[in-house]
Design a protein that fits this description.
The structure holds 2 protein chains of 2 kinds. By secondary structure, chain A is an all-alpha fold. Chain A is built from 22 helices and no strands. Chain A has a domain of about 180 residues. Chain B has a domain of about 375 residues. The chains are: A mainly alpha, B mainly alpha. The interface between A and B is large, with 53 and 60 residues.
């Protein structure tokens, strides 16, 4: 019923529609783009002129849940501008090697012909994202070379750290966030103002995104923006658009492919309905659209016969099950129980061969790092992830309800995070951000989201290890917790079934974070000194993994129980 | 040269013209908006901030203060003043040096020139409370990073940890003194004005996110090429002043005078507020049954506090004289650089420094300062009122800023404080003053490479100011001429920003743009000061009329 797409949409018909769609997106994005021009306009206007009008609208829409879009846009613009200017303040903060990675990609795409993008090895930070991201960097590199030609210099630009490159790259991240802002606008425009504000705060100014994108440096904001745009389209019944955007997203960053099964089954059951013939033709349409996207992305490289190189870069399986800092997922328990078993067996008098590879020492080679439990291979993790997604997929097969698509996709990313191979802790944002949109639906959702967001943001803390950023990350989390706490408790105040955190287990789990942090920061150096330097990180991983497992079980339960 | 002079004259002329026009028109507008506000206050219940308000005052206050701390921390990541600038480094070094001196020497040697305490190298030049504060912070630094405060060897110390620890001392003093004082003020203020509740979070944000204070305390950390008169840790003395104001608003006059004496003993600049405190308290005492007793009580508190703080020096005249002589460095002349005050602005036409000796200038500035305070003091003594007191603070701070000896750009923080306390009542005045105060310290901040936080904080301030919950639809059309004027002035300041950033000044007048900025800001400050004086007059007159009626 929701589908507004035409029944028989041939590719020829499709393309004008697509252009129209892109045009719309661009127009709206331009409107939302927080440019200097907008700012000036804001500053110039005497405040007195604007306010009355705004408040008038606000007064009227209090009774009416559907507010005039004008007000929403104004509010959103106001809020996103504040967060944008706050992001500007973070420019001189610490940035990780990812900064140099992206700078190198700018230089690489700018200097070299397309055929050498995926083969170049001038810098150790080779291009390992899918082609669209390379094109994106190529686009940015034109501006970069205008700003400062050294940025795009493949050799002289190595480890270039001048203010120009820092400001330029940070600004590109800030500007690319406008896609996220736009897609959030689309998702939240029918909600009431309180819920809308909560979602905006937890997405647009999410501490997770601030830490990862604006301090640590990456482009997750705009990739998640694409994901949210796709989810928004699916939610509104525009399946073709949703699938199209998701295909684009996959060509930007392949890690998002974990939700592929969910998307596939959903589109198969929801979009391709209405009898065999009609369904089949729709399937063909969707297939053509997706393949067209992939051809655009990979075609040029296929022409140069480089698909092998591209794939090799994108899937480096030699990297091992975990990072040096373990992402808080299922494998933390697996590794720890292996260590524990080894310890117990040694005590019991069995001979246990100590594994040559270590988990705390960074990269892991081919040899098995496990002493007792069987080795985990990429294939095994792949199987486990699929198995975990299976219940959700069955549910979708039975009843493809557009209202639940956000939860399903978030669940898929949760599974990918918990059981995947070589998962990075940043990947928890892939389900945290979508879940923010559904967090305001009920007090149970809010509770779950509240806990999950704390776990997820706290697990990002080790990314910023320098003293200068310490207060920033702590206060970001505290501020976020305070706003969510007050926001959720005022949203769900009518219901008398407990607060945002209920039950002593949850409460003590929350307090535990303070204990873990105090131990890692103060007590550990004081008591143990330099011994066991990996212990604080290990504790953080373990403690956050508990919360992540809980979140997974909660999501699984709620998906199975839903009708 | 002719061109430049002509330009200058032109700017002067237009400015005068503008300020006159502007004065008449904006006065009317402000008056109107105030009248309207009284009517509107009851309707105001729902706003963007309302959802934060369900748990009373604590919710918004916690969230907003956390956000302001976050902003302060982020600003402090930007470069600090005097970084890498040997041999005198900057005020950052001054602060560090004081910590070094206070933690290593006995109390009575702090202000005493000796081999171990070379006063020529960043000697202490603040009242003893600052020295005690340096001592406490010095102990904190010594605990975590002993190298940074060791005697002699730590001069010019600059390390990652040292810098961070210094930053965090500013942050903690902000959080421990300024924030609670603001909370207290807000609670008191909220209990005394009706229909204020929905404006409360906005007001908190306006006081805590004041861009000037954040940039100077957390970003600038002082530059060495200026006089010794100002310093970081402004938040301490300003916080103490806010505490005094809050105490005064809830009729705890003795507590108020205690806090104000503390503020005065932290930074002598707090004397900018002294006339207002003095006249209000005097006026109030005169209205009591036993005026002498009241005055004596206040006097005992003030003198007692002074004695307590000056205890180590009180025993000998020499020691007292040593400290006092450190506090008043008159040798530096009546003005320096380009401060938007009376002496500096008029020096474009009248060369004060050449016409008068320092001695006579001292006298002149003192007389003019005091006489410009007199009207508002007189009104406050005649008819003391709490609302009038806030305006009185603004007036006296402005008189000192305009006319006192040796004023620094950063002293604009002092008039800004009462203006921010009045933000709900006078949103336009506050916003206008903040914008031009920011502009007046722009050249200073630019030298410290603080352009980025300047832009960001400016924008955040304007946006939050714009987010003020507005109660009722304003049916009246805004005055076209007035808005045109405002836009013109803002455009002018924008253009000047760009010119200052991009255009090299003519070689003969290397400080041409600074002078123009100064003129523009001065004209706006004068306008605001005149407005607020007039406002106090209107207030007091209605009060006086009421008193007269009661008598009859």
């Amino acid at each position: 019923m929701h589908s507004l797409d035409h029944a028989h949409l041939s590719p020829c018909q499709f393309i004008p529609g697509l252009l129209q769609f892109i045009n719309d997106v661009e127009c709206n994005a331009a409107k939302l783009n927080p440019t200097a021009e907008n700012l000036n306009r804001e500053a110039m206007k005497p405040t007195k002129q604007k306010k009355p009008q705004q408040s008038k609208e606000k007064q009227t829409h209090l009774q009416n849940p559907h507010e005039p879009t004008n007000t929403i846009i104004k509010d959103l613009l106001w809020f996103s501008l504040i967060s944008t200017f706050f992001k500007l303040l973070l420019i001189p903060a610490y940035h990780s090697t990812d900064f140099e990675v992206h700078r190198n990609w700018l230089a690489l795409t700018h200097t070299l012909p397309l055929s050498q993008w995926y083969t170049d090895e001038t810098s150790p930070w080779t291009l390992d994202y899918p082609p669209f991201f390379a094109y994106f960097e190529y686009l940015l590199s034109h501006f970069a070379s205008l700003v400062d030609p050294t940025i795009t210099d493949l050799y002289n630009g190595l480890n270039y750290k001048s203010p120009s490159v820092i400001i330029f790259q940070r600004l590109t991240v800030i500007a690319s966030d406008s896609i996220l802002i736009y897609s959030i606008y689309k998702l939240t425009k029918n909600l009431n103002s309180k819920k809308r504000f909560l979602i905006w705060i937890s997405v647009i100014s999410s501490p997770g995104l601030l830490i990862v994108d604006h301090i640590h440096f990456q482009y997750n904001g705009f990739l998640l923006g694409l994901l949210m745009a796709s989810l928004g389209a699916l939610q509104n019944g525009h399946d073709l658009t949703g699938g199209f955007i998701f295909a684009i997203l996959l060509c930007f960053k392949h890690l998002f492919a974990v939700a592929g099964p969910v998307y596939f089954v959903y589109i198969l059951r929801h979009y391709c309905r209405g009898g065999f013939l009609r369904g089949f033709s729709k399937l063909i349409t969707m297939g053509v659209v997706v393949i067209a996207v992939f051809v655009t992305a990979y075609g040029p490289f296929a022409c140069h016969g480089q698909i092998q190189d591209v794939l090799k870069r994108m899937f480096p399986f030699g990297r091992g099950l975990c990072h040096a800092y373990w992402a808080p997922n299922f494998w933390v328990f697996y590794i720890l129980s292996d260590k524990l078993l080894a310890f117990v067996f040694t005590k019991l008098g069995f001979y246990i061969k100590t594994p040559t590879a270590s988990f705390t020492g960074g990269l892991v080679g081919d040899s098995s790092p496990f002493a007792i439990l069987p080795t985990v291979t990429p294939l095994v993790t792949f199987g486990v992830v699929l198995l975990a997604i299976l219940p959700c997929v069955v549910k979708i097969w039975r009843n493809p309800d557009p209202k639940k698509i956000v939860r399903w996709v978030a669940y898929a990313y949760t599974c990918g995070f918990l059981f995947g191979w070589h998962v990075h802790e940043k990947a928890s944002l892939h389900f945290l951000i979508p879940l923010a949109v559904v967090a305001v639906e009920s007090i149970q959702d809010a509770r779950h989201y509240f806990m999950l967001s704390i776990v997820s943001i706290y697990s990002l803390f080790p990314l910023l290890y320098e003293a200068q950023e310490y207060p920033v990350k702590v206060i970001l989390l505290l501020l976020y917790v305070a706003i969510m706490w007050f926001g959720f408790s005022s949203t769900f105040s009518e219901k008398k079934d407990g607060g945002v955190v209920s039950g002593w287990i949850e409460k003590s789990y929350m307090v535990g974070f303070v204990v873990v942090e105090i131990w890692g920061q103060f007590l550990h150096p004081l008591i143990l000194g330099d011994r066991f330097p990996f212990l604080p990180l290990m504790i953080i991983s373990f403690y956050c993994a508990l919360g992540m497992m809980y979140s997974w079980i909660w999501q699984l339960k709620s998906i199975i129980r839903s009708h | 040269m002719c061109k430049a002079l002509y330009l200058m004259g032109f700017v002067l002329e237009t400015n005068r013209f503008f300020s006159e026009l502007h004065y008449c028109v904006i006065l009317k507008e402000m008056e109107k908006s105030r009248v309207k506000k009284v009517k509107k206050e009851e309707v105001d219940n729902n706003s963007d901030w309302s959802w934060l308000m369900d748990k009373g005052i604590s919710g918004p206050f916690i969230c907003i203060s956390l956000f302001s701390i976050l902003v302060r921390v982020s600003v402090s990541m930007h470069p600090y003043s005097g970084a890498g600038d040997s041999p005198k480094y900057g005020d950052f070094e001054a602060q560090r040096h004081w910590m070094e001196i206070t933690t290593n020497l006995p109390v009575n040697e702090w202000y005493h020139n000796s081999t171990s305490n070379d006063l020529a190298y960043w000697g202490l030049d603040y009242p003893p409370l600052t020295a005690y504060q340096s001592y406490v912070h010095g102990i904190f630094l010594r605990f975590f990073h002993p190298d940074s405060v060791s005697l002699y060897t730590s001069r010019g110390h600059e390390s990652y940890t040292g810098k961070l620890l210094m930053r965090w001392t500013v942050l903690t003093s902000d959080v421990l003194i300024f924030f609670p004082a603001v909370l207290w003020f807000i609670i008191v203020y909220a209990s005394q004005s009706k229909g204020y509740k929905s404006n409360l979070p906005w007001h908190v944000a306006m006081i805590l996110l004041n861009p000037c204070l954040i940039l100077i305390d957390h970003g600038h950390f002082q530059a060495y090429y200026f006089n010794f008169q100002n310093n970081a840790y402004n938040c301490i003395s300003l916080g103490l002043t806010i505490g005094a104001v809050a105490a005064l608003l809830c009729d705890k006059d003795l507590v108020a005078s205690f806090f104000f004496t503390l503020a005065l003993n932290h930074k002598q600049m707090s004397a900018y507020f002294a006339p207002a405190f003095f006249s209000y308290l005097l006026g109030k005492s005169l209205r009591c049954k036993n005026p002498v007793l009241e005055v004596v009580k206040l006097g005992i508190v003030v003198i007692g506090t002074f004695a307590l703080i000056w205890w180590p020096y009180i025993h000998s005249k020499v020691a007292i004289f040593e400290v006092v002589s450190r506090l008043a460095p008159f040798e530096r002349g009546i003005y320096e650089d380009y401060v938007a005050n009376f002496w500096c602005t008029t020096s474009v036409l009248i060369k004060w420094k050449k016409l008068f000796t320092t001695q006579s200038l001292k006298l002149l500035s003192l007389t003019i300062t005091l006489s410009s305070c007199l009207p508002s003091m007189f009104l406050q003594i005649k008819a003391p009122s709490k609302r009038g007191f806030l305006y009185g603070l603004l007036n006296s701070a402005f008189s000192f800023y305009f006319f006192s000896f040796q004023v620094h750009e950063k002293s604009i923080l002092l008039p800004l404080l009462p203006a921010s306390l009045l933000a709900v009542e006078e949103p336009f005045l506050f916003q206008w003053l903040t914008q031009f105060a920011l502009f007046s310290i722009f050249p200073l901040l630019l030298r410290d490479k603080l352009l980025l936080p300047y832009i960001a904080l400016y924008a955040i301030f304007i946006l939050i100011h714009y987010g003020k919950p507005k109660p009722k639809p304003n049916t009246q059309k805004p005055n076209f001429f007035l808005s045109f004027l405002i836009v013109c002035l803002l455009l002018l300041s924008l253009v000047l920003h760009v010119i200052y950033l991009k255009v090299n000044p003519p070689k003969k007048y290397p400080f041409l743009f600074e002078a123009i900025i100064m003129l523009l800001c001065f004209s706006q400050f004068v306008f605001i000061a005149v407005y607020s004086n007039r406002k106090l007059w209107i207030l007091s007159r209605t009060l006086l009329v009421e008193i007269e009626k009661k008598r009859i």
